[in-house]
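Re-run requested by the PI after the first attempt was lost when the workstation crashed. Everything re-entered from the original request form. Ligand of interest: nicotinamide-adenine-dinucleotide.
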Amino acid sequence: MASITAIYTAQRSFFHSGATRSLSFRKAQLKKLKKVLKKYETAILEALYADLRKHPMEAFGSEVGLLYEEIDHTLANLRDWMRPQPVTSPLLQYPSASMVYREPKGLTLLIGPWNYPFQLVIAPLIASIAAGNCAILKPSELAPATAAVTEELIREAFDPAFVTVITGEGQAVIPAAMQHRFDHVFFTGSIPVGRKILEMAAPHLTPVTLELGGKSPCIVDKSADMKTSARRIIWGKCWNAGQTCIAPDYILVQEQVMEPLTVQLKAAIRRFFGEDPEKSPDYARIINEKRFDQLTAYLQQGRVIAGGQTNRAERYIAPTLLADVPLDAPIMQEEIFGPLLPLIPYKTIEDALQIIARNPNPLSLYLFSKSRRMEKTFITQVPFGGGCINNTLVHFTNEELPFGGVGQSGMGRYHGHAGFGEFSQVKSVMKTATWLDIPVKYPPYGNKLKIARMMMR
Ligand code: NAD
């Protein structure tokens, strides 16, 4: 791997050459990316299996298929997105025309986590290329097989002066890279590291996108369809064994339906993974022993009503339902990020809102209800990044929905047009014709204030 300074200098000069700016260049690179993804598809799925024992169906759906869709959506719309956007101009500035240009930012640094180690560096790359930038990708060292295949396919597809991969431990590699001034840093990961990224960006005033985590609540009220809700919750919770930033973290269930919901949740676990989920080929493993130990400690913090089995050698934790969990237990204060699902009963909407407010600004919120009033209440009263009504996770899959967090769960948005916007610099220009030059604004002002007041009421 070339030194970061050498990579940085090469990319700076490539960007300055203007090569990345044209629509045709951007489209050609996106097509190249899709081609190399297709070529390496099996290798990517194998790497994800090696790192996380992700079933190819899950790996394809969340790490590769989504990227094909994102590329196609971008290719279909990029010409439109790049077109300068005319806006109206104030009468006072007549005869003027105003235009919003979206320009490439320059050099971008894309830092990924281990849980969707491929998709979460390549999806930002699609947006970065679409916006006409160069990029350095830093995949997580905790998913080494995926990091290796990412490096290989990027090397095959791109000139490193345009896009390249750096590897290694984040705490060594990122501070060294960020000594240089990037024009945008896109980070997906934990809140504490996100804070460090922001600090490292501050001296250069580098704009930053932070895609962080948090505790995403899942509310089930008495009007919900229990069977369908349970299936969709268990599916969302067990996808990648709960190691999903937008996984439902805990359930708030209206107390009178605690029992029927529990019955359906247990049935859904059995239906998806059989009597012994350890034997299911469809169920992923915990990334490493450290995370396994943190998660198993949570098991003591409630009453296990389903699951609870673990196998450290295999880094296996069964899909687990927990009841009687105190709100001040660590499991209700930290992002769980594993297949443990506390069920917290609530009486009134106000109670539910108060419990959510203990961990403010969730990345996602899921509501299972037939009540429009409940829908409105949760959408308007809880600051959260995004979410679903009567479903989990799927808002992430729609390129038309800007994805990101709020407050504790992050800042900035991407996917589709939002991603293009995030990686573009907005340049606003007003152009004034010279055939007329109304002198009101020029000194000497005399009694022009009166005219100004009349015009700017
Ligand atoms: P992490 O913050 O530990 O690591 C993320 C990246 O930062 C890695 O590439 C790592 O090498 C690097 N890094 C680690 N320490 C660093 C340091 N001191 N300085 C600079 N860089 C450093 O996160 P993780 O454990 O890989 O991922 C899990 C977290 O990510 C969870 O909190 C989860 O919710 C969040 N997440 C969020 C999203 C989202 O889209 N919002 C998606 C996936 C994961």
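Saved to the shared folder this time. The pocket of nicotinamide-adenine-dinucleotide is lined by residues 111-116, 120, 138, 140-141, 170-171, 174, 188-190, 193, 196, 211-213, 245, 335, 337, 363, 405, 410 (CB under 6 Å).
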